């Protein structure tokens, strides 16, 4: 767990906390804003221009101006450059504490669950993970689960989500550890998504960007679902596919209409999900 320490030097306190495995880097104003709005435990906020930070908060997030005034410490921009790979244009960065895994798992396993869980099987791109977490937050999903070797809380993933990891439960699990609920896996051989209704406790599963879903996930799935697309188009990207799946859940899909001329019933190819 990150500790604030007793030093009066904010740079020294940052360095003491930054290497802790529980530390989450929030790069820029929007990541910090979202972490605070969704209850993130933000411990250190450094800015090269505190008056400018508070003015930005007043303009874009006046609900947080008081919190930022209390948390933010001003340091020279040269000091920020020694702490960060690159100083964000908003001139602010923060360190927060990664949410407790047990609490996240309890949220994911809640029954009945009010909204789906998104499953990314073995994703290979941290930016894609972040983009999906951001989408899941926007649609009000319960959370995002990943399998495989990548940590979904890697700084590059948190950057891609603009700090919205704190809006839902984000965890890395194995397939046997999945939360309860029917699994709807996106796959080219599946039923037309327009003919399927996703329940609130669904797990919406998307395979890797190259291989699609694994045989293990295919066997575990309650149903395979495909998104129709234009002939001769090979794929949708991962974040787009997740967005379509979550929008379909939110709109409580209806029976499939006749396909327009030029459309095929084929889903995206193996690189789509």
UniProtKB/TrEMBL annotation:
Keyword annotations from UniProtKB, A to Z: Methyltransferase, Transferase
Record-annotated RNA 2-O ribose methyltransferase substrate binding domain positions: 25-102
Keyword Ribosomal protein: no
The protein's name: TrmH family RNA methyltransferase
SUPFAM superfamilies for the chain: alpha/beta knot (SSF75217)
GO-annotated biological processes: methylation
GO terms of molecular function: methyltransferase activity
Membrane-spanning segments: none
Domain of life: Bacteria
Family: Belongs to the class IV-like SAM-binding methyltransferase superfamily. RNA methyltransferase TrmH family.
Pfam families linked to this entry: SpoU_methylase
Keyword Cell membrane set for record: no
């Amino acid at each position: 767990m990150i500790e604030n320490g007793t030093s009066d030097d904010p740079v020294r306190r940052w360095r003491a906390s930054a290497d802790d495995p529980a530390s989450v880097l929030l790069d820029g104003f929007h990541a910090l804003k979202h972490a605070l709005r969704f209850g993130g435990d933000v411990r250190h906020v450094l800015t090269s221009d505190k008056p400018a930070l508070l003015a930005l908060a007043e303009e874009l997030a006046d609900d947080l101006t008081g919190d930022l005034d209390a948390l933010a410490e001003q340091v020279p921009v040269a000091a920020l450059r020694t702490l960060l790979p690159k100083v964000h244009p908003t001139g602010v960065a923060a360190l927060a504490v990664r949410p407790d895994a047990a609490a996240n798992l309890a949220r994911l396993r809640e029954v009945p669950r009010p909204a789906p869980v998104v499953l990314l099987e073995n994703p290979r791109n941290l930016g894609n993970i972040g983009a999906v977490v951001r989408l899941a937050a926007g649609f009000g999903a319960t959370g995002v689960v990943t399998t495989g070797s990548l940590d979904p809380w890697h700084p590059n993933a948190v950057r891609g989500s603009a700090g919205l990891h704190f809006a839902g439960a984000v965890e890395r699990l194995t397939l046997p550890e999945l939360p309860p609920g029917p699994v709807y896996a996106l796959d080219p051989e599946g039923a037309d998504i327009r003919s399927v209704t996703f329940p609130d406790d669904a797990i919406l599963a998307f395979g890797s960007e190259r291989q699609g879903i694994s045989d293990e996930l295919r066997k575990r799935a309650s149903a395979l679902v495909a998104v129709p697309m234009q002939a001769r188009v090979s794929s949708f990207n991962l974040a787009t596919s997740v967005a379509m799946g979550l929008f379909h859940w939110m709109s409580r899909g209806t029976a499939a209409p006749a396909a327009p001329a030029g459309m095929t019933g084929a889903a995206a190819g193996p690189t789509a999900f």
